[in-house]
Amino acid sequence: MRKRAFVLIVAFGLWPVLSLSSARAQRGEIYAITNARIVPITGPVIERGTVVIRDGKIAAVGRNVSIPAGARVINAQGMWVYPGFIDSGTTIGLTEIGQVPATVDVNEIGDFNPQLKAIVAVNPASELIPVARVNGITTVLTTPRGGILSGQAALINLDGWTWEEMLVKAPIGIYFNFPTIAAGRFFDPETFQPRERSFEEARRQREERLQRVRRLLDDARAYAKAKRAAEAGVPEGNAANARDRQPFLINPVLEALVPVVEGTLPLIVAANDDRDIKAAVEFAEEQKVKIIISGGLEAPKVARLLKEKNIPVLLGPVLSLPRNEDDPYDSTFTAAKQLYEAGVKFAFLTNDASNVRNLPYHAAMAVAFGLPRDEALRALTISPAEIFGVADRLGSIEVGKMANLVVWDGDPLEIRSQVRYLFINGRLVSLETRHTQLYERYRNRP
Amino acid sequence: MRDARAFAARMWGLAVSACLLGASLGGSVSAQAPSSGAREEVTLIRGGTILTVTRGRIENGSILIRGGKIAAVGRNIDAPPGAKVIDATGKYIMPGIIDCHSHIAIDGGVNEGTLSVTSMVRIEDVLDPTDINIYRDLAGGVTTANILHGSANAIGGLNAVIKLRWGKTASEMLFEGAMPGIKFALGENPKRSNFTPPPGTPRRYPATRLGVEYTIREAFTQARNYMLQWEEYERRKRAGENVVPPRRDLKLEPLVEILQGKRLVHAHAYRADEILMLIRLAEEFGFKIATFQHVLEGYKVARELAAHGAGASTFSDWWAYKVEAYDAIPYNGALMARKGVLVSFNSDSAELARRLNLEAAKAMKYGGLSEDEALALITINPAKQLRIDHRVGSIEVGKDADLVIYSGHPLSVYSIVEKVFIDGQLYFDREADLARRAEIQKEKEALRARERGAERRPGPRNRPPDEGTEGNAEHPLPPGPGKEVRP
């Protein structure tokens, strides 16, 4: 009873106490979180430590840190400070209500849209964003999902007035729905009838799709070559006469693929079946492109290959049914442990939008089924930061990094734990959401 | 091809069960009084922390099971001679989880979506006891499930309450004596808001919430007339008249049972207005709604729900997958409970059902329920909602020995299910499951080799159906209740 009252005070009463609001907590504000157990992830736990936040960054962290003059002090006695968690695969910002097409900007028409940028359609005012962040998820990868090459994934912070303010890095990679061998019964939307697709037909269909991707990548390579030649001022072919030189014409679709064929931008390959993952790795070898596996629920079956080729996995959702009827009942729960034991680098994703907040519980289930807890925490923080090439800015509590910090009253993987303070980019963010507002309103209905 | 895999899965499950059931001859242990002459099996579970749900917790307690029932619960119970003893030191024991909204174990589709009133169809007729999801949910601590039709129609079909007696036949899985029920649905799904009919087919009535109300009203008007016809017939027959009986109507008979208080209504509903609408309609016809299912805006009309006496069986935290779920809040369960509504958390998903214990914990996080209140959401409360609380839902003497042994506290994310008993029989044992994996793998390889020998190519895969509400067919986002509207 007493505890419940306490929790409610925590959830709704701290703002007036601190008399802080998002509006006032500007980038110029200096904060000191004191007396906290700090979990930096990349170093040992600091008991009774202090974190100083200045100009959006972590200015100091440690046991004997002096508090700068003018800093707002948050006494985190008995609380834990963790880096903000990163969800490595969502559609947040691109979708509001799943079944209302007007609010969903995830699946564009056409098979090949590598030129589409997720970031330009992220809705900073989405009600889904506060709901996700108040459970300690501060950063997400948000991706288009349509067709075969869906578009460019963006890494965003879950706070900002505009999508520009939310942006951490884009593009992270191009989302690639790896063509799967979809044999068996399926619902044919053309005829509105269930129909059987033979294995042969399914295999042909996959091969045909892959062939189209190969052709597109060939075109991109030719385009890149022509573009480099144009930039270097070397005339194409044997027409050495400068007067014959044509102006170089931009092709936005091929332009988007130049960094892919040059090996600087990965394809984020959505694949769960071991057969598809294996085929994707072979495809990447043959095409000399970098890939990241997204989904990867059967990645443990090809873990040795992934380790050998140094391919990371954005794993999840852990909380899924086993892929096959005859898989062990806990195959999705143990996948993370198996990847860890095989030395494969991995991070967690929800593939969700409205329930991104449950990301920690996907990791927790992996821990319950054998993944060391520290590894689960890494897969929520520093590992995705490394995979996405932002480990210099995100993913741990270290001086100079972006201050994405979450103060918890307990273990963040335990459902009962509450977030008490939340910093994104050094800003103290309100814990209010659509849900807390509705709760307050109807709780007080006479 | 599919059969080979399915066969392997079945054999695996059956083998595990057989190994668990030992020499119980494969007969189901009658949950009624054991037949005379049958040797009563006696088991003692010793040394664990017992979460009774209704009577607090017992540290270092013991549970004596005799003839499938809980014979004794307490601190110091000695093992009777011949009893099987299970050491649960350091473990937690709680009542089997009851999932008040499930669609597992159904062969074929869950919706008879052709008509708006399909009270003539029955889940019981299409139970598939070999659905692997039964075993998976059992492995998540679920022992009883309310198997319902989907929500494509205002009045759907007749439900079946089952115990997850994996390895038994469909009829042996039925929960003996459970009160019969029926599925209703309101709002977007019976309106077919998110469903495109095949080209050239007319839209199905109703298409508005007004029409849904009328569809149900019309059905009950017919049912009442039908009931009066039969009463008239019986009256005249008793008076010795030579009368022709009315024509039997299998659609109306279940509705008459509702009017007579013999059948429970489980109504899929989201919005506050439609919840209130059905309450008032039921009151007008003189019956009660047993449970509102999903009931995501229940918190807005908690007072009315409590006054009517309807139970609320909701999700912990699903929201925003469709318009009528946009005001759903994770505080819903706790808020309704605080206002006197009998609340349970259900799964509506074979996947979610594997971790309802953790869903219950969310009611502590969002709204501050106590430990016992949270555990009640998935045990005694759904038992009460299904009118089977005299048999299951808590650890009390005389109740069925449906028990789950967890490695730690069931409300902690780090705890896993180790053993599950139904009627005192061990139906899931993680240790046995793990021990058999190598053997099963070998068997699978052998089957695959045989298959390759026959076909010279790898075969297609069985996949769970795509249940996504968003995303595309190959990359669905997690399942949501929207799957119920799938054709």
The total beta strand count of chain B reads 19
Q: Span between N and C termini of chain B?
A: 26 Å
Binned strand content of chain B: 15-25%
Q: Gap between N and C termini of chain A, in Å?
A: 22 Å
Taking the sheet with the most strands of chain A, its summary is: 8 strands, mixed
Strand/helix succession of chain A: HEEEEEEHEEHEEEHHEHEHEHEHHHEEEH
Structural class of chain A: alpha/beta
Oligomer state of the chains in this structure = heterodimer
| Main beta sheet of chain B | 8 strands, mixed
- Please, how many helices of chain B? 14
Report the principal-axis shape of chain B: globular
The low-confidence runs of chain A, each spanning 5 or more residues with pLDDT under 50, are: 1-25
Net shape of chain A: globular
- Indicate the percent of residues in helices of chain A: 25-40%
Protein chain pair with the most extensive contact, residues per chain: A-B, 73 and 79 residues
Arithmetic mean pLDDT of chain B: 88
Q: Any descriptors?
A:
heterodimer; A: 446 residues; alpha/beta; eight-stranded mixed sheet; globular; disordered N terminus; B: 487 residues; disordered C terminus
Give an overview in words.
The complex is a heterodimer of chains A (446) and B (487). Chain A is built from twelve helices and 18 strands. Chain A has helices at 2-18, 128-133, 163-166, 199-232, 252-261, 274-287, 303-309, 331-342, 359-368, 373-380, 382-387, 434-443, and strands at 31-38, 46-54, 57-62, 72-75, 80-83, 85-90, 137-142, 149-157, 167-177, 184-188, 193-197, 267-271, 291-295, 313-315, 346-348, 405-408, 419-424, 427-428. In chain A, α4 (199-232) crosses α5 (252-261) and α8 (331-342) crosses α9. The radius of gyration of chain A is 24 Å and the shape is globular. Chain B has 487 residues and is of the alpha/beta class. Chain B has 14 helices and 19 strands. Chain B has helices at 2-21, 132-138, 170-173, 188-191, 209-238, 253-259, 272-285, 302-308, 332-338, 356-365, 371-376, 380-385, 430-435, 437-455; strands at residues 42-51, 57-66, 69-74, 84-87, 92-95, 97-102, 142-147, 155-158, 160-163, 181-185, 264-269, 291-294, 311-314, 343-345, 403-406, 417-422, 425-429, 471-472, 475-476. In chain B, strands 1, 2, 3, 4, 5, 15, 16 and 17 form an eight-stranded mixed beta sheet that branches. In chain B, strands 8-10-11-12-13-14 form a six-stranded mixed beta sheet. In chain B, α1 packs antiparallel against α14. The longest helix of chain B is centred in the middle third of the chain and has 30 residues, at 209-238. Classes of the chains: A alpha/beta (446), B alpha/beta (487). At the A-B interface, α1, β10, α9 and α12 of A face α1, α2, α10, α14 and β18 of B.
